[in-house]
Amino acid sequence: MQEICVMEFEFAQDYFEPIKNIVRSANPLIASSTIEDIYCLEWYMLRQEGLNLNVLMDNNIFTRVVNLAKGNKIPSTEAKDYRFCCAVMCFFILGNFNIEPNIALYEKTSKNSHSQAIEDLYHFRVADHIHPMGYARLALGLTDEFSNEEIQSAKKIIDGNSRDTKESNYGKLLDDWKLKYLHLLKVTALSKNTFEDTENVRVFLEWITHDCYTSPGSIIFALLFFSPKRRSLPAMIKKINTGNADTLIKGVKNAAWDLTYITKYRKLSKNQLDHTIWFFCSNDNLLKIIARSLYLKEDQKIETAVQSLIKDYWGNKKGSKVYEYYNAMKMAISSDTEARIIHNRKIGLRIDQMISDLESEVRSLVG
After folding, report:
1. In whole angstroms, what is the distance from residue 278 CA to residue 255 CA?
2. How much is the pTM?
3. How far apart are the C-alpha atoms of 103 and 99, rounded to whole Å?
4. What pLDDT, on a 0 to 100 scale, did the predictor assign at position 166?
């Protein structure tokens, strides 16, 4: 088999296009800058010196590559998802991307422990140093696990202090997550009433304006969730119709983590340094829809984008009413910036109690 030299890696030329095609077909990437072809791996490999490529990776990908770096096999029931994750890792390693796994670690630790997060971080660092040919073979179905030699070679490359991290408590609840959880508890509570769909949007947007504070990802989520086209979307809150309150709360928490990735990515991309491009990577279809809805297409204006989104999911008649509610919210939060900052700070101080109150409300509606 013919070999080509890729950066510091030797990589089989026959695998190059198939790996690109797997990633392109899944379309998992969102970029903070306009790139003519976001899946042109050659462009990343041959980019100008000094251009940094950073990627925020979601927990579904992180968990699977960590599992493989621990020496486990690809489970037959998840083979397609695992092989996609391997293609993505191969793509990132060949393209010399820097991967940011911290939100995935916070999400995992919300169900485990800080010490487990440190172990997962170590194995992720191992995974990030496995030769791309190892990932290519897994992605293309030629094998179901890394060889011991591939794993041990990666362990030799990483620093002896590979378990070191600046984070002392991955188990803490992030403020961004708390806000998204609060928003989605309100969405869930509203979904249990008998209001018209447009009325649910009105009540949510008024609540988020006057009794809480806004977040673009949560607003998009609510616009889609209450829309007549929600059934055409992937499940937005898992088991929303369950009669078990604990199961429902778990689903709301998971959905809040999805929105937390979007918030983190927006912050990273807004504050990115010169000569840096941030990417978000996820194979979650709903998460990709929401994330892409927050970014303008080339030459698109903000108002045009909002109107288009609402029209697509609500139609003309209901859409005009929903757009009216959206505009009322927008005017209210932008009319007095200083007063809004003070309002938001006050909400931040009360957020734990607000979460507790809405959790109780949701439980009562289910029970």
Report:
1. 23
2. 0.91
3. 11
4. 67
CA geometry: angle 31, 32, 34, nearest 5 deg: 75
Task: Report how far residue 138's alpha carbon sits from residue 121's, in angstroms, rounded to the nearest whole number.
Answer: 21
Exposure on the CB side of residue 46, measured as CA atoms within 13 A: 5
Whether residue 2 has pLDDT greater than 60: no
Residue 35 has what DSSP assignment?
-
Task: For residue 352, give both structure tokens.
Answer: 């734990």
**Which tokens go with 122?**
């170590």
Length of the chain as a residue count? 367
In 3D space, the residue among 118, 148, 123 whose CA is nearest the CA of residue 134 turns out to be 148
Q: What are phi and psi of 9, to 5 degrees?
A: -105, 145
Question: Residues 187-217, buried b or exposed e (16+ Cβ, 10 A)?
Answer: bbbbbeeeeeebebbbbbbeebbeebbbbeb
Question: If you search the block for the tokens 């927008």, which residue do you land on?
Answer: 330
Write out the H or E segment, with its range, that includes residue 186: helix 175-191
Residue 5 forms beta bridges with which residues? 10
* Closest-CA residue to 221 (of 172, 254, 193): 254
How many other CB atoms sit within 10 Å of the CB of residue 96? 16
pLDDT one-digit tens code per residue, 210-232: 999 999 999 999 999 999 999 99
First-last CA distance in the chain = 63
User: What average pLDDT does range 184-193 have in this prediction?
Assistant: 96
CA dihedral 7, 9, 12, 16 (to 10 degrees): -50
